[in-house]
TrEMBL record:
This is Transcriptional regulator. It comes from Prevotella fusca JCM 17724. Residues 9-79 form the HTH merR-type domain. SUPFAM superfamilies: Putative DNA-binding domain. Keywords: DNA-binding. Pfam families: MerR_1. GO terms for molecular function: DNA binding; DNA-binding transcription factor activity. PROSITE patterns: HTH_MERR_2 (PS50937).
Length: 112
């Protein structure tokens, strides 16, 4: 996320917008994935850390991008946490490279 490198906590709304999911989906994932437990204030306001956001990105990759069912994604995370993390990092790198290539294409199209 790193919109503000000094920010320690993010609201559910900020996280939902960043990941492009609904707030209700984040709340649902909290019930389905035991390792996803954001801090809550006395008023039960969720406060997500960078670590929480990284976990959500891994879940998003498994469920939304790769099409895993919730139970299969949960099992994969429990059995192979490092593999899921590596897969997420590879996906992020690929998206970054894709965006860079799109930018280069726009620049080249502007030269013609």
């Amino acid at each position: 996320m790193a919109e503000n490198p000094h920010k320690l906590y993010y609201s559910i709304k900020e996280v939902a917008q960043q990941i492009n999911v609904t707030e209700s989906l984040l709340r649902y994932w909290e019930t389905e994935f035991p390792h996803l437990r954001p801090k809550t204030t006395g008023n039960r306001v969720r406060q997500y850390t960078e670590k929480d956001i990284e976990q959500i990105k891994v879940i998003y990759n498994l469920v939304k991008v790769r099409g895993f069912k919730i139970a299969a994604a949960r099992k994969m995370l429990q059995e192979n946490r490092s593999g899921a993390d590596k897969s997420q990092k590879v996906m992020e790198t690929l998206f970054s490279v894709r965006d860079q290539l799109k930018d280069l294409k726009k620049q080249l199209d502007g030269l013609v």
